[in-house]
Specification:
- The chain has 747 residues and is α/β, with parallel strands linked by helices.
- Among the domains are: 3-107, RuvA domain 2-like (Arc Repressor Mutant, subunit A), CATH 1.10.10; 114-188 and 241-301, Tex N-terminal region-like; 319-474, Nucleotidyltransferase, domain 5 (2-Layer Sandwich); 635-708, OB fold (Dihydrolipoamide Acetyltransferase, E2P), CATH 2.40.50.140.
- Helix content is 47%, strand content 11%.
- The protein is built from 30 helices and 15 strands.
- Helix 8 packs across helix 11 (155-171), helix 12 (174-187) crosses helix 15 (260-309) and helix 14 packs across helix 15 (260-309).
- It is globular, with a radius of gyration of 34 Å.
- It starts with a helix and ends with a helix.
């Protein structure tokens, strides 16, 4: 199939204009990244979004691989001098890999089988005679093939060999295989059963000790769970269909008469189905359903990761980060507005040391010394107790918000090469506290340093195809990074590596250049970085920001290739670019049609105008302070019917997990997400969303919490707890607060 025909095929499949498909494929083939193409080549693609471009990329890759396989098969069969015009036509018409492989199967080089052994014994003519079903003196014919030399001792041996050949022919028949495959898709059942003696070891798979359901309707999480049980030698899995119905399909195709020949064929079909065809199609079904389950699980993970990465940032604030703990204490770090570590220490406000006064003094001193604007507390062990301790410091300035932050993946970061490189002189606890503080300021910038799989927002992520998972998650991270944009002079090399066209090596080169020459003064200066060619510059420049750059548009998402357009707009209005961005009335005077050319259309011009309204705008939502119920700290504090605020930490196909502040997430089953029927939890909730839930069941021993969102209006309003002051002091003066604290404990 020609490349043009492939483009038309994709256009028809995706319901996208063929010109847009062709232009997109050409841009991809030229090395264009998906973020760049979707953002800066809208005229060429017809304003396709990232999802559509990904679909085109995936389809052209699949179809090209199919064409490569088709060519390989044609060459292989031709080299055997077995490529008939009819077979060639069938191969050229095949639209799926399964169909191609079915047609190739009889000609595919294979290991020595029962059929090949029978052929070596000269029994192929007998098999063909039986298949013709014209001669019913089969036993007499079989006796003619008795041969001591060829180790055919009897007519019975000859017939067995002939049946072996027929079995293989049946199992390799393209039409029979396709019909049996469809039977499996339509009716197959998946059954799981416990391996005897594995009851205790397989307790977590208890639901699947005796389980049966239709294969194609089995949810991805259940299929992956059963497959894990099989992998761990706890369960046995079988995929079955009605054997009589399967045999009838083959018999209908192969048996055309009655008599001894038909009986021999029937016996061959029964043997061939059990020994060859059924295991082959079952393996296909396992592979296909595993791929489908992987795809669904990966999509869930990707959606959750995207929500987490695009969580609202607090912004550039001086932050006090706390990694809570009991016996080992709470690690405290002070970070400046750029996330730089200024000072660190350990406090012991909890049991067994219970040095509360000293801990309060340290926190207040850090707040004073480093002008702290927010406090971030990790949500791990001792989180709620530490939060309560901080909130009980009644002379802590009330304008400093106290925020519990997810520390998922923080321990992975702490032990990573990235963390060791950045904080070689500090231990893991300091690195973890820094990560907690930074992810409050900018979740995206900090989370890109962690392997996405370790962030903990997926389901069965260790059971799915790891290469596909990594590619998809990297794609999500890249999409988020480029959607937000990256400040060139403050970004880590990890963040820079996800920018369109850059990658790890060039990201390191940018950081090295920045360290040697100081801050970048313009986007144009990027061209001085080693290995920054014109093509890479084109791909990345629009996503990099220079806050105080030489050119006023360097801080915006306007691509350098379009600067001349804005310069012309400003010249036509007799004003500067800065005036154009600051003056709404001036922008209203711009007539976009005037700037349309052969290469620049209205989509690009409209994007430029949006950027002029708010250069470098952040697409993420504004930050909202959230706090858990003050009366709930541990699972034993919960009781049925309790209504609580919570944060969605993970969304799966079967429901959503919600943190209500007790160190153990509760599950809102899909049936409890809303008053109406829900087919996809992602339509109702997203990771990071603040929700109201009602406790429906608590199992303290098994640490299980069942929650419900039925009947809830999902608007979580947070109010700060009232604090009764024992001393009169100026809440904006930290020195006054410290003096009041000292007086309090003197008494």
């Amino acid at each position: 199939m020609t490349e043009t025909k492939l483009h038309f095929k994709i256009a028809d499949l995706l319901k996208i204009d063929s010109k847009s498909v062709t232009a997109t494929i050409e841009l991809l083939d030229e090395g264009g990244t998906i973020p760049f193409i979707s953002r800066y080549r809208k005229e060429a693609t017809g304003s396709l979004d990232e999802v559509q471009i990904m679909q085109i990329r995936d389809e052209i890759e699949r179809l090209r691989q199919l064409e490569q396989r088709r060519d390989s098969i044609l060459k292989s069969i031709d080299s055997q001098n077995k490529l008939t015009p009819e077979l060639k036509e069938q191969i050229l018409a095949a639209e799926t890999l399964n169909k191609l492989e079915d047609l190739y199967l009889p000609y595919k080089p294979k290991r020595r089988t029962k059929a090949t052994i029978a052929k070596e014994k000269g029994l192929e003519p007998l098999a063909q005679l039986i298949l013709e079903q014209k001669n019913n003196s089969i036993l007499d014919e079989a006796e003619k093939f008795i041969s001591e030399e060829k180790e055919v001792a009897s007519a019975s041996d000859a017939l067995q060999g002939a049946r072996d050949i027929i079995s293989e022919i049946m199992s390799e028949d393209a039409i029979i295989r396709e019909n049996i495959r469809e039977l499996f898709k339509r009716t197959a059942t998946i059954k799981s059963r416990l391996i005897k003696g594995k009851e205790e070891a397989g307790e977590k798979f208890e639901d699947y000790f005796e389980w049966e359901e239709k294969l194609m309707s089995c949810p991805s999480h259940r299929l992956l769970a059963m497959r894990r049980g099989e992998k761990e030698d706890i369960l046995i899995l079988d995929i079955t269909v009605d054997t009589d119905e399967a045999l009838a399909i083959a018999e209908k195709k192969m048996i055309t008469s009655r008599g001894e020949a038909a009986n021999q064929i029937k016996l061959a079909i029964e043997d061939g189905y059990k020994r060859l065809l059924q295991p082959s199609i079952e393996a296909e079904m396992r592979l296909m359903t595993k791929h489908m389950a992987d795809e669904k699980a990966i999509v869930v993970f990707a959606d959750n990761l995207r929500e987490l990465l695009l969580a609202p940032p607090l912004g550039q604030k001086a932050i006090l980060g706390l990694d809570p703990g009991f016996k080992s204490g709470c690690k405290v770090v002070a970070l400046d507005k750029q996330g730089k570590l200024l000072e660190e220490t350990v406090i012991y406000p909890h049991e067994p040391q219970r040095k509360t006064v000293e801990a309060e003094m340290v926190v207040l001193a850090f707040c004073q010394k480093h002008n702290i604007e927010a406090i971030a507390i990790g949500n791990g062990t001792a989180s709620r107790e530490t939060e309560q301790f901080i909130r009980n410091i009644d002379i802590l300035p009330k304008e400093i918000p106290v925020i519990v932050v997810s520390e998922a993946g923080a321990s992975v970061y702490s032990a990573s090469e990235v963390a060791r490189e950045e904080f070689a002189a500090y231990d893991l606890t300091v690195r973890g506290a820094v990560s907690i503080g930074r992810r409050l300021a900018d979740p995206l910038a900090e989370l890109v340093k962690i392997d996405p799989k370790s962030i903990g927002v997926g389901q069965y992520q260790h059971d799915v195809d790891q290469t596909h998972l990594k590619n998809k998650l990297d794609e999500v991270v890249g999409g988020c990074v480029n959607a937000v944009g990256v400040e060139l002079n403050t970004a880590s090399k990890q963040l820079l590596s996800y920018v369109s066209g850059i990658g790890p090596v060039l990201a390191q080169n940018i950081v090295d250049y920045r360290n040697e020459h100081g801050e970048f003064k313009s986007r144009k200066q990027l061209k001085e970085v080693p290995r920054m060619g014109e093509k890479v510059f084109e791909q990345c420049a629009g996503f990099l920001r220079v806050k105080n750059g030489v050119h006023p548009l360097d801080k915006s998402a306007v691509h350098p290739e379009s600067y001349y357009i804005v310069e012309k707009m400003a010249a036509d209005l007799n004003c500067s670019i800065d005036e154009l961005t600051e003056n709404k009335d001036l922008r209203k005077q711009i007539q976009l049609q005037k700037y349309v050319t052969d290469t620049v259309g209205l989509p690009t011009l409209k994007d430029i105008l949006l950027e002029l309204e708010k250069p470098g705008r952040d697409p993420r939502k504004g930050f909202e302070v959230f706090s858990f119920d003050d009366n709930v700290h541990k699972i034993s504090d919960l009781h049925e019917g309790m209504r609580l605020p919570g944060i969605v930490t993970n969304v799966t196909n079967f429901g959503a997990f919600v943190d209500v502040g007790v160190h153990q997430d509760g599950l809102v089953h899909i049936s409890q997400l809303a008053d109406e029927f829900v087919d996809d939890p992602n339509k109702i909730v997203k990771v990071g969303q603040k929700v109201w839930v009602t406790v429906s069941e608590v199992d303290v021993k098994r640490k299980r919490i069942a929650l419900s969102m039925k009947g809830e209006v999902q608007v979580v309003k947070q109010t700060k707890p009232k604090v009764e002051k024992e001393e009169v002091y100026d809440p904006n003066d930290i020195n006054s607060a410290l003096a009041a604290l000292k007086n309090k404990f003197k008494k």
